[in-house]
Each structure stands twice: as structure tokens, then as C-alpha cells.
């Protein structure tokens, strides 16, 4: 069973904001895989389950707000007995340009509060990640920037990264994550 988690903040106020890139990927996976995220609202998140390419899949959007995402992820992992090796977390990255994605098998939080929460609740830094580039603004403070909405130009590029992320997630169902990284971290 694979658990795909998109990080973001719940509510219409935060829709299409830079910090919700992970949610945007999960929404696209939900459509592509025909998995209804409104199926269940428990574990402090929106969750949907299905079978894709013969693999049981869980999609999760924690509704705890970014800084407490680990609470929701830990609850889902415990209830469904998901191994850390089967967790893939998708989130925004200020240090990548719009339209780019990067993958890692492990690493520090790098200043990302959602990842800090996941590390605290899973007690490890060794989980798979797909980072979606949102770039960094030279004059806008980080908090204001990540909670701001994408411009139309940015959104066009981010949609490319979302498409790449969906393809990477699909490949991760049948291939090793190392192979997925080689294919999509360019």
C-alpha cells in the first residue's frame, strides 16, 4: 500500500497559493486515478483510497494546517499500517524554480515547517519526497510569498510541475523510487 501525501493549508482562503502545491498535486492524482477525496474526512485530513495499477493507494491532504501535518500523516500510517518506505510526500520548495520538481529519498526539513512536523511524528528523515518548485521572491517576505496566490504566468509553469509530479507518482507505483528520480529530477 502506498500513501501519497500533499502538504498545504485547508480552506478556500489558501486555494491556489504557493504553499498548497502539494494539495494541487493530490487533487490531480485524485482525478487521474478516480479516487474521491471526499470519501472520508477523518485522521485530520481529506483521504481517499483506491487501487491503481494493482497497488492499493491512499491519497491524503492533511487539514491540520501545514505546521501540524505530521499529526494527520502519523494517524493514517498507524491506522492503515503503512510502512515509512511506502510514504511519498509532495510539497512546495522555495529553492526550485517554477515548473521544476526534485525528488529525494531522505533529508532534513530545510526550513519547511510541514516537513519538520512529519519528521517529528514519523521519527525519521528517511521518507520519499517530491518537491514542487515555487521559486523565491527577492523582496516579498517568505511567509507572505508562500501564502500568496500564484500569478497566471507562475501557474502555467507550476501546472507543468504538477503534471510531472503526477507522472512521477504513477511511475512510483511500479518502479523503484531511484528510477523515478532518474527519470523526473532533471
Note down, in words, how this protein is organized.
This protein is α/β, with parallel strands linked by helices and 186 residues long. It contains 6 helices and 7 strands, in the order E-H-E-E-E-H-E-E-H-E-H-H-H. The protein has a 7-stranded mixed beta sheet with strand order 2-3-4-1-5-7-6, with helices on both faces. It is globular. The two termini are 27 Å apart.
Task: Briefly summarize what is shown.
The protein is of the alpha/beta class and 186 residues long.
- Count the DSSP helices: 6
Report the mean per-residue pLDDT as an integer: 94
Distance between the termini: 27 Å
Computed CA radius of gyration, to the nearest angstrom: 15 Å
Low-confidence stretches: none
Query: How many β strands by DSSP?
Result: 7
Spatial sequence of strands, sheet with the most strands: 2-3-4-1-5-7-6
Structural class: alpha/beta
| Order of helix and strand elements from N to C terminus | EHEEEHEEHEHHH
The amount of helix comes to: 25-40%
| Shape call | globular
Beta content: 15-25%
Q: Characterize the biggest β-sheet.
A: 7 strands, mixed
